[in-house]
Design brief:
three-stranded parallel sheet, globular, Aminoacid_DH-like_N_sf, alpha/beta, eight-stranded mixed sheet, 373 residues
Length: 373
Protein backbone atom coordinates (compact mmCIF):
# COMPACT_ATOMS: atom_id res chain seq x y z
CA UNK A 1 0.00 0.00 0.00
CA UNK A 2 1.30 3.45 -0.92
CA UNK A 3 2.14 5.65 2.05
CA UNK A 4 0.86 9.25 2.33
CA UNK A 5 4.41 10.53 1.88
CA UNK A 6 4.80 8.56 -1.35
CA UNK A 7 1.53 9.94 -2.67
CA UNK A 8 2.63 13.47 -1.85
CA UNK A 9 5.96 12.94 -3.62
CA UNK A 10 4.16 12.09 -6.86
CA UNK A 11 2.13 15.29 -7.02
CA UNK A 12 3.70 17.50 -9.72
CA UNK A 13 5.12 20.87 -8.75
CA UNK A 14 3.10 23.96 -9.69
CA UNK A 15 2.94 24.29 -13.46
CA UNK A 16 4.74 21.00 -14.08
CA UNK A 17 3.04 18.63 -16.50
CA UNK A 18 3.52 15.45 -18.47
CA UNK A 19 2.54 16.03 -22.10
CA UNK A 20 0.71 13.43 -24.19
CA UNK A 21 2.22 13.52 -27.67
CA UNK A 22 -0.89 11.90 -29.11
CA UNK A 23 -2.85 15.12 -28.77
CA UNK A 24 -0.13 16.94 -30.73
CA UNK A 25 -0.14 14.31 -33.48
CA UNK A 26 -3.93 14.34 -33.95
CA UNK A 27 -4.34 17.49 -36.09
CA UNK A 28 -1.58 16.37 -38.46
CA UNK A 29 -3.15 12.95 -38.91
CA UNK A 30 -6.53 14.58 -39.45
CA UNK A 31 -4.99 16.71 -42.20
CA UNK A 32 -3.53 13.58 -43.83
CA UNK A 33 -6.92 11.85 -43.77
CA UNK A 34 -8.52 14.85 -45.43
CA UNK A 35 -5.88 14.82 -48.17
CA UNK A 36 -6.40 11.09 -48.74
CA UNK A 37 -10.17 11.60 -48.96
CA UNK A 38 -9.71 14.35 -51.55
CA UNK A 39 -7.53 12.04 -53.62
CA UNK A 40 -10.14 9.30 -53.46
CA UNK A 41 -12.88 11.74 -54.42
CA UNK A 42 -10.80 12.61 -57.49
CA UNK A 43 -10.42 8.93 -58.38
CA UNK A 44 -6.75 8.81 -57.35
CA UNK A 45 -5.38 5.96 -55.24
CA UNK A 46 -3.80 6.99 -51.92
CA UNK A 47 0.00 6.94 -51.74
CA UNK A 48 1.78 3.64 -51.17
CA UNK A 49 4.41 3.50 -48.41
CA UNK A 50 6.82 0.56 -48.46
CA UNK A 51 8.67 -0.46 -45.31
CA UNK A 52 11.84 -2.55 -45.44
CA UNK A 53 12.57 -4.62 -42.33
CA UNK A 54 15.74 -6.70 -42.17
CA UNK A 55 16.50 -7.08 -38.48
CA UNK A 56 15.10 -8.44 -35.24
CA UNK A 57 15.57 -5.21 -33.27
CA UNK A 58 12.46 -4.88 -31.07
CA UNK A 59 12.31 -1.09 -31.48
CA UNK A 60 12.42 -1.41 -35.27
CA UNK A 61 9.68 -4.03 -35.23
CA UNK A 62 7.55 -1.89 -32.94
CA UNK A 63 8.04 1.14 -35.20
CA UNK A 64 7.01 -0.96 -38.21
CA UNK A 65 3.85 -2.04 -36.39
CA UNK A 66 3.00 1.53 -35.41
CA UNK A 67 3.55 2.69 -38.96
CA UNK A 68 1.30 0.00 -40.42
CA UNK A 69 -1.53 0.63 -37.97
CA UNK A 70 -1.38 4.40 -38.42
CA UNK A 71 -1.35 4.16 -42.21
CA UNK A 72 -4.31 1.79 -42.19
CA UNK A 73 -6.24 4.09 -39.87
CA UNK A 74 -5.53 7.14 -42.02
CA UNK A 75 -6.27 5.55 -45.39
CA UNK A 76 -2.68 5.26 -46.62
CA UNK A 77 -1.59 2.09 -48.36
CA UNK A 78 1.25 0.35 -46.55
CA UNK A 79 3.33 -2.65 -47.54
CA UNK A 80 5.94 -4.20 -45.24
CA UNK A 81 8.66 -6.06 -47.12
CA UNK A 82 10.72 -8.34 -44.90
CA UNK A 83 14.27 -9.07 -46.05
CA UNK A 84 15.74 -12.25 -44.60
CA UNK A 85 19.38 -11.50 -45.34
CA UNK A 86 20.57 -7.93 -44.61
CA UNK A 87 22.95 -8.12 -47.55
CA UNK A 88 19.88 -8.10 -49.82
CA UNK A 89 18.48 -4.83 -48.44
CA UNK A 90 20.22 -2.67 -51.03
CA UNK A 91 18.71 -4.70 -53.86
CA UNK A 92 15.25 -4.52 -52.28
CA UNK A 93 15.71 -0.79 -51.76
CA UNK A 94 16.68 -0.16 -55.36
CA UNK A 95 13.71 -2.24 -56.53
CA UNK A 96 11.42 -0.03 -54.45
CA UNK A 97 13.10 3.12 -55.80
CA UNK A 98 12.39 1.97 -59.36
CA UNK A 99 8.84 0.76 -58.72
CA UNK A 100 6.42 3.38 -60.11
CA UNK A 101 3.72 2.15 -57.71
CA UNK A 102 5.82 3.15 -54.69
CA UNK A 103 5.53 6.72 -53.43
CA UNK A 104 7.45 6.45 -50.17
CA UNK A 105 10.09 4.21 -48.60
CA UNK A 106 11.08 3.72 -44.98
CA UNK A 107 13.96 1.48 -43.93
CA UNK A 108 13.80 0.26 -40.35
CA UNK A 109 17.24 0.73 -38.86
CA UNK A 110 19.57 -0.45 -37.49
CA UNK A 111 20.44 -3.09 -40.06
CA UNK A 112 24.23 -3.13 -40.03
CA UNK A 113 24.68 -0.63 -37.20
CA UNK A 114 28.09 0.99 -37.46
CA UNK A 115 29.61 -1.79 -39.55
CA UNK A 116 32.11 -0.16 -41.89
CA UNK A 117 31.28 0.23 -45.54
CA UNK A 118 33.44 0.78 -48.60
CA UNK A 119 30.74 3.17 -49.80
CA UNK A 120 30.55 5.42 -46.76
CA UNK A 121 31.14 5.80 -43.05
CA UNK A 122 28.81 2.88 -42.31
CA UNK A 123 26.62 0.56 -44.33
CA UNK A 124 23.45 2.01 -42.78
CA UNK A 125 24.57 5.50 -43.80
CA UNK A 126 25.15 4.21 -47.31
CA UNK A 127 21.63 2.77 -47.41
CA UNK A 128 20.14 6.08 -46.26
CA UNK A 129 21.79 7.80 -49.20
CA UNK A 130 20.55 5.09 -51.55
CA UNK A 131 16.89 5.98 -50.96
CA UNK A 132 15.64 8.17 -53.80
CA UNK A 133 14.77 11.72 -52.77
CA UNK A 134 11.46 11.15 -54.56
CA UNK A 135 10.56 8.43 -52.03
CA UNK A 136 12.51 9.31 -48.87
CA UNK A 137 9.82 9.79 -46.22
CA UNK A 138 12.46 9.89 -43.49
CA UNK A 139 14.24 12.84 -45.09
CA UNK A 140 17.65 11.32 -44.40
CA UNK A 141 19.15 10.95 -47.88
CA UNK A 142 22.07 13.17 -48.84
CA UNK A 143 20.04 15.70 -50.81
CA UNK A 144 17.64 16.46 -47.97
CA UNK A 145 20.36 16.46 -45.31
CA UNK A 146 22.53 18.76 -47.39
CA UNK A 147 19.64 21.17 -47.96
CA UNK A 148 18.80 21.15 -44.26
CA UNK A 149 22.33 22.00 -43.15
CA UNK A 150 22.45 24.84 -45.69
CA UNK A 151 18.95 26.01 -44.69
CA UNK A 152 17.59 25.42 -48.21
CA UNK A 153 13.87 24.81 -47.90
CA UNK A 154 12.91 23.85 -51.47
CA UNK A 155 14.10 21.17 -53.87
CA UNK A 156 13.24 23.06 -57.06
CA UNK A 157 15.01 26.41 -56.80
CA UNK A 158 14.24 28.93 -58.22
CA UNK A 159 10.62 27.84 -58.74
CA UNK A 160 10.26 27.06 -55.00
CA UNK A 161 7.10 25.02 -55.51
CA UNK A 162 8.34 21.80 -53.87
CA UNK A 163 9.25 21.96 -50.20
CA UNK A 164 12.01 19.73 -48.87
CA UNK A 165 11.20 16.74 -46.71
CA UNK A 166 12.66 16.99 -43.20
CA UNK A 167 13.85 14.09 -40.99
CA UNK A 168 10.63 12.85 -39.43
CA UNK A 169 11.81 12.20 -35.86
CA UNK A 170 13.59 15.54 -35.61
CA UNK A 171 10.56 17.19 -37.21
CA UNK A 172 8.31 15.59 -34.59
CA UNK A 173 10.32 17.31 -31.84
CA UNK A 174 9.99 20.63 -33.67
CA UNK A 175 6.21 20.21 -33.92
CA UNK A 176 6.02 19.35 -30.22
CA UNK A 177 7.98 22.48 -29.35
CA UNK A 178 5.87 24.56 -31.74
CA UNK A 179 2.81 23.54 -29.75
CA UNK A 180 4.29 25.16 -26.63
CA UNK A 181 4.10 28.97 -26.51
CA UNK A 182 7.11 29.13 -24.19
CA UNK A 183 9.31 27.55 -26.86
CA UNK A 184 8.17 28.93 -30.21
CA UNK A 185 7.02 32.45 -30.98
CA UNK A 186 5.19 32.33 -34.32
CA UNK A 187 4.66 36.09 -34.28
CA UNK A 188 8.32 36.49 -35.23
CA UNK A 189 9.53 36.18 -38.84
CA UNK A 190 10.54 32.79 -40.23
CA UNK A 191 14.00 31.92 -38.99
CA UNK A 192 13.49 33.74 -35.68
CA UNK A 193 10.70 31.73 -34.03
CA UNK A 194 13.10 30.47 -31.34
CA UNK A 195 15.24 33.55 -31.05
CA UNK A 196 16.40 34.04 -27.47
CA UNK A 197 15.92 30.37 -26.59
CA UNK A 198 18.71 27.99 -25.61
CA UNK A 199 18.42 24.28 -26.38
CA UNK A 200 20.57 21.32 -25.35
CA UNK A 201 20.40 18.10 -27.36
CA UNK A 202 22.10 15.07 -25.84
CA UNK A 203 23.36 12.58 -28.47
CA UNK A 204 24.49 13.86 -31.87
CA UNK A 205 23.09 11.05 -34.01
CA UNK A 206 22.62 11.40 -37.76
CA UNK A 207 18.97 10.39 -37.43
CA UNK A 208 17.84 12.82 -34.72
CA UNK A 209 20.46 14.83 -32.83
CA UNK A 210 22.37 16.42 -35.69
CA UNK A 211 19.39 17.34 -37.93
CA UNK A 212 17.35 18.54 -34.96
CA UNK A 213 20.16 20.85 -33.88
CA UNK A 214 20.29 22.33 -37.38
CA UNK A 215 16.51 22.75 -37.56
CA UNK A 216 16.25 24.55 -34.23
CA UNK A 217 19.28 26.71 -35.03
CA UNK A 218 17.65 27.58 -38.37
CA UNK A 219 14.69 28.79 -36.31
CA UNK A 220 16.90 31.13 -34.30
CA UNK A 221 17.80 29.12 -31.19
CA UNK A 222 21.24 28.68 -29.67
CA UNK A 223 21.67 24.90 -29.69
CA UNK A 224 24.23 22.93 -27.70
CA UNK A 225 24.87 19.54 -29.28
CA UNK A 226 26.39 17.08 -26.80
CA UNK A 227 28.01 13.79 -27.72
CA UNK A 228 30.34 11.41 -25.91
CA UNK A 229 33.51 13.40 -26.49
CA UNK A 230 32.49 16.86 -27.68
CA UNK A 231 30.10 19.79 -27.32
CA UNK A 232 29.23 22.09 -30.21
CA UNK A 233 27.15 25.23 -30.39
CA UNK A 234 24.91 25.84 -33.40
CA UNK A 235 24.22 29.56 -33.67
CA UNK A 236 23.18 31.74 -36.58
CA UNK A 237 23.82 29.08 -39.19
CA UNK A 238 27.36 28.45 -37.94
CA UNK A 239 28.91 25.65 -35.90
CA UNK A 240 31.27 26.51 -33.05
CA UNK A 241 33.28 24.31 -30.69
CA UNK A 242 31.82 25.05 -27.25
CA UNK A 243 35.06 25.55 -25.37
CA UNK A 244 34.77 25.45 -21.59
CA UNK A 245 31.22 24.10 -21.59
CA UNK A 246 30.15 20.89 -19.86
CA UNK A 247 26.93 18.90 -20.18
CA UNK A 248 25.86 20.35 -16.84
CA UNK A 249 26.55 23.96 -17.81
CA UNK A 250 24.66 23.53 -21.08
CA UNK A 251 21.60 21.95 -19.48
CA UNK A 252 21.47 24.51 -16.68
CA UNK A 253 21.26 27.43 -19.13
CA UNK A 254 18.72 25.75 -21.44
CA UNK A 255 15.02 26.43 -21.92
CA UNK A 256 14.67 23.14 -23.80
CA UNK A 257 16.46 19.84 -23.21
CA UNK A 258 16.16 16.93 -25.65
CA UNK A 259 17.55 13.54 -24.63
CA UNK A 260 18.21 10.77 -27.13
CA UNK A 261 20.70 8.39 -25.51
CA UNK A 262 19.90 4.83 -26.68
CA UNK A 263 20.76 3.01 -23.45
CA UNK A 264 18.80 2.23 -20.31
CA UNK A 265 21.82 3.00 -18.13
CA UNK A 266 21.85 6.73 -18.89
CA UNK A 267 20.04 9.21 -16.64
CA UNK A 268 20.18 12.97 -16.95
CA UNK A 269 20.75 14.40 -13.45
CA UNK A 270 17.47 16.04 -12.46
CA UNK A 271 19.22 18.78 -10.48
CA UNK A 272 20.61 20.22 -13.72
CA UNK A 273 17.14 21.02 -15.05
CA UNK A 274 15.91 24.51 -14.30
CA UNK A 275 12.32 25.57 -13.55
CA UNK A 276 10.05 26.06 -16.59
CA UNK A 277 12.26 23.92 -18.83
CA UNK A 278 10.73 21.76 -21.56
CA UNK A 279 12.20 18.25 -21.53
CA UNK A 280 11.66 15.92 -24.50
CA UNK A 281 12.75 12.28 -24.33
CA UNK A 282 13.41 10.94 -27.84
CA UNK A 283 15.16 7.72 -26.83
CA UNK A 284 13.34 4.40 -26.56
CA UNK A 285 14.59 4.35 -22.94
CA UNK A 286 13.72 6.93 -20.31
CA UNK A 287 16.74 9.20 -20.04
CA UNK A 288 15.31 11.11 -17.07
CA UNK A 289 13.75 10.35 -13.71
CA UNK A 290 10.15 11.31 -14.41
CA UNK A 291 9.08 11.64 -10.78
CA UNK A 292 12.01 13.91 -9.97
CA UNK A 293 11.73 16.32 -12.88
CA UNK A 294 7.99 16.73 -12.35
CA UNK A 295 8.87 18.09 -8.93
CA UNK A 296 10.54 21.05 -10.66
CA UNK A 297 8.26 24.05 -11.06
CA UNK A 298 6.88 24.61 -14.54
CA UNK A 299 8.69 21.70 -16.20
CA UNK A 300 6.93 20.39 -19.31
CA UNK A 301 7.91 16.77 -19.87
CA UNK A 302 7.29 14.83 -23.09
CA UNK A 303 8.20 11.17 -22.42
CA UNK A 304 7.71 9.83 -25.97
CA UNK A 305 7.56 11.26 -29.48
CA UNK A 306 6.59 8.13 -31.42
CA UNK A 307 3.02 9.16 -32.24
CA UNK A 308 4.12 12.51 -33.60
CA UNK A 309 6.96 10.86 -35.53
CA UNK A 310 4.49 8.58 -37.32
CA UNK A 311 2.29 11.59 -38.08
CA UNK A 312 5.31 13.39 -39.57
CA UNK A 313 6.13 10.28 -41.57
CA UNK A 314 2.65 10.37 -43.10
CA UNK A 315 2.93 14.10 -43.66
CA UNK A 316 6.24 13.62 -45.46
CA UNK A 317 4.68 10.90 -47.61
CA UNK A 318 1.91 13.25 -48.70
CA UNK A 319 4.46 15.95 -49.49
CA UNK A 320 6.45 13.53 -51.65
CA UNK A 321 3.27 12.45 -53.40
CA UNK A 322 2.31 16.00 -54.28
CA UNK A 323 5.90 16.94 -55.14
CA UNK A 324 6.64 14.05 -57.48
CA UNK A 325 3.90 11.44 -57.89
CA UNK A 326 0.53 13.14 -58.20
CA UNK A 327 -0.82 12.67 -61.76
CA UNK A 328 -1.05 16.44 -62.26
CA UNK A 329 2.53 16.91 -61.11
CA UNK A 330 3.78 14.11 -63.33
CA UNK A 331 2.00 15.69 -66.30
CA UNK A 332 3.59 19.07 -65.56
CA UNK A 333 7.02 17.47 -65.22
CA UNK A 334 6.61 15.63 -68.53
CA UNK A 335 5.64 18.87 -70.25
CA UNK A 336 8.66 20.61 -68.76
CA UNK A 337 11.00 17.84 -69.91
CA UNK A 338 9.44 17.80 -73.37
CA UNK A 339 9.81 21.57 -73.68
CA UNK A 340 13.47 21.35 -72.72
CA UNK A 341 14.05 18.75 -75.43
CA UNK A 342 12.41 20.66 -78.29
CA UNK A 343 15.19 21.46 -80.76
CA UNK A 344 15.83 25.17 -80.99
CA UNK A 345 16.15 26.72 -84.46
CA UNK A 346 19.73 27.27 -85.49
CA UNK A 347 20.83 30.91 -85.47
CA UNK A 348 21.04 32.54 -88.89
CA UNK A 349 24.72 33.23 -88.44
CA UNK A 350 25.70 29.59 -87.95
CA UNK A 351 28.54 30.19 -85.49
CA UNK A 352 30.15 32.91 -83.39
CA UNK A 353 33.00 33.21 -85.91
CA UNK A 354 30.56 33.73 -88.75
CA UNK A 355 28.67 36.32 -86.72
CA UNK A 356 31.90 38.21 -86.00
CA UNK A 357 32.91 38.08 -89.66
CA UNK A 358 29.52 39.39 -90.77
CA UNK A 359 29.62 42.25 -88.27
CA UNK A 360 33.17 43.18 -89.26
CA UNK A 361 32.30 43.11 -92.96
CA UNK A 362 29.25 45.27 -92.33
CA UNK A 363 31.33 47.79 -90.40
CA UNK A 364 33.99 47.97 -93.13
CA UNK A 365 31.35 48.36 -95.83
CA UNK A 366 29.74 51.15 -93.86
CA UNK A 367 33.05 52.98 -93.53
CA UNK A 368 33.72 52.64 -97.27
CA UNK A 369 30.30 54.01 -98.16
CA UNK A 370 30.80 56.94 -95.79
CA UNK A 371 34.15 57.83 -97.38
CA UNK A 372 32.77 57.58 -100.91
CA UNK A 373 30.30 60.30 -100.07
Amino acid sequence: MMTPDAKTARIPAPGAAKIDAGSIALPFRTEVREQVNRLRDAGIDPPLLVGLLANSDPSAKKYAEWTGRACMADGIRYELRTVDDPIDVESALRDANDDPRVHGIIVYYPIFGQVESYSGESQDDYLRDTVSHRCDVEGLCHEYRSNLYRNIRYVDHPSNAKKCVLPCTALSVVKILESMPTCYDKSRPIGRHMEGRTVTIINRSEVVGRPLAAMLANDGADVYSIDIDSIYLFRGGKLHKAEGETPESCVRKSNVVVTGVPTKNYRLPSEWIQPHTTVVNVASFKNVNEDEILQIEGVQYVPMVGKVTVAMLERNLMRLFYNFHHPDRQFEDRLRVAASQVPQPAPWYGSVVQLYTALAATAILGMMLTRSK
